[in-house]
Specification:
heterodimer, A: alpha/beta, five-stranded parallel sheet, 5 strands, B: alpha+beta, seven-stranded antiparallel sheet, 26% helix, globular
Chain lengths: 123, 177
């Protein structure tokens, strides 16, 4: 069975790029357009394998989403990788403290993205 | 640095305009599209602009907005998955452009926070009337960028890295914790 990865990003084009990157790989891609939608999907899906998440989004940003999920204990054994234009150390540290496992600065290379998610979801 | 001939910039904003110039070329180069500076006179009619993306930013020392407007062709050339939404893609490009500028500012010790991008229809834009657009042409199509900002009293952009806010992750890089 394919592993489910959720991409949380307000850009439909980025979500399409992520979907295209994983085409033919052993992953099923789910989508959310902001942090609020992300929490809804994550709460309603018990078999997610990993999350890719933007930082700057309307309604609820990715770091706050992560912190809420961490407080709810929802990130145990659920790797999260931030996929963003940001590279500020304070934001990277905040993500790490909230339980993120990686940080990718756009633009991303599809093969590198797939390799990263394979590594984090292995086993 | 911006070549002196045939390009647009506001001399009052030269360091930041130079940053915008470099970041714009780097951004499009990362999508394998070479853009070269050209005269504002070469820029097509406003009705040929597809969309523009606007990224607001703010901080203690600096606040303003970066705008990226293009004709359709550069959007088509750079979108890796086809162009299902011109508005969405130009917003994402503006977001990535501002991300690069933010990292450059951080390296100089200037911290800003970013808004989420907004897209505007290009039909009613008239770059020729703008304060300081920088105009580029690609093999097909044009790109226009500008930055509008105000600094806090006495603010001057540092000329050397501060060593304080060096970005932890660069464009296109991945780190695993």
């Amino acid at each position: 069975m394919d592993k489910k990865i959720l991409i949380v990003d307000d850009s439909t084009t980025i979500r399409e790029q992520v979907r295209a990157a994983f085409a033919g790989a052993e992953f099923e891609i789910m989508e959310a357009g902001d942090g609020v939608e992300g929490i809804e999907v994550i709460t309603g899906c018990s078999d997610l394998a990993a999350i890719l998440c933007d930082v700057n989004m309307p309604r609820l940003d990715g770091l706050r989403m992560l912190e809420i999920l961490k407080d709810k204990g929802r990130l145990v054994n659920l790797p999260v990788v931030m996929l963003t234009t940001e590279g500020q150390p304070a934001l990277v540290q905040r993500a790490k403290a909230a339980g993120a496992k990686g940080w990718i600065v756009k633009p991303f290379k599809p093969e590198q993205l797939v390799a990263t998610m394979r590594k984090l979801t292995a086993g | 640095m911006i070549p002196q001939n045939g390009t647009m910039r506001n001399p009052d904003n030269q360091p930041i305009d130079d940053m915008l110039f470099d970041c714009s070329r780097e951004l499009f180069a990362s999508y394998e599209l070479d853009i070269q500076p050209c005269s504002r006179d070469e820029f097509p009619a406003p009705e040929d602009l597809a969309f523009c993306g606007v990224m607001g930013f703010g901080g203690k020392q600096l606040r303003g907005a970066v705008v990226l407007a293009t004709t359709r062709e550069p959007l088509e050339k750079t979108s890796p998955v086809g162009l299902t939404s011109q508005r969405d893609w130009v917003c994402e490009l503006a977001n990535q452009l501002m991300g690069r500028i933010k990292n450059r500012l951080l390296a100089l010790g200037v911290e800003v926070l970013l808004s989420t991008p907004s897209g505007l229809s290009g039909n009613n834009l008239s770059p020729g009337q703008l304060r300081a657009p920088q105009v580029f042409k690609a093999a097909t199509g044009f790109v226009c960028v500008w930055i509008d900002y105000e600094g806090s009293e006495g603010f001057e952009l540092p000329t050397a890295p501060s060593g304080v806010f060096e970005p932890a992750v660069g464009e296109g890089e991945t780190i695993i914790f």
